[in-house]
Write a structure and sequence with these properties.
single chain, 177 residues, alpha/beta, 7 helices
């Protein structure tokens, strides 16, 4: 997420939009709940308006959600309203991880939005302890509809889309290795 101005501009609409595939989102939450343990210290990069953090933070020791957008973080903090003292939100770019320690780092619907993905992945893996976990879910445009990589640059030129990397599953796996 390299464009805070774009994300600040769309934050209110993003916060109001319903999750488009609630069934898949619920499955994702359950998978993460199965992986997270009460002693975990979790860092979520690209937390947006904090909805996922609010769902998951109750099951861990500490949860820090970060986003490049100050407006997204402001909305996340409004949702928090002191309900969970072990959950906090802060403005950080994906390549500016807050100091840890972090047992688990989450990047949900984020990696395809990062222009310097190789650097970000290196920072993530450097920040994790030997038995730490990196949990990611992201769009794979190269494996999707053929026209998306053609449309996104046009949408970006008129301010309707952020930077989006055209990743394939094979390329992502290669980067993670």
């Amino acid at each position: 997420m390299t464009d805070p101005d774009f994300w600040n501009k769309v934050a209110h609409k993003y916060a109001k939009d319903a999750i488009s595939d609630m069934e898949s989102y619920t499955v994702t939450l359950e998978r993460m709940r199965d992986l997270l343990e009460p002693h975990h210290r979790v860092l979520e990069i690209g937390c947006g308006t904090g909805s996922t953090a609010l769902e998951l933070a109750g099951g861990v020791d500490r949860y820090v959600g970060t986003d490049v957008s100050s407006e997204m973080v402001r909305i996340a903090n409004e949702k928090l309203t002191g309900k969970m003292p072990h959950l906090s939100f802060a403005v950080h770019a994906a390549d500016d991880l807050p100091s840890g320690p972090h047992d688990v780092i989450l990047a949900l619907n984020l990696l395809h939005l990062v222009s310097n993905l190789e650097d970000v992945l290196k920072q993530i893996f450097d920040a994790l302890p030997p038995k730490g976990m990196f949990i990611a879910k992201t769009g794979l445009l190269k494996d999707g509809a053929w026209f998306l990589p053609l449309i996104i640059p046009v949408m970006r030129a008129v301010g309707k889309a952020p930077f989006v990397r055209s990743l394939s599953e094979a390329k992502l796996i290669d980067l993670l290795r």
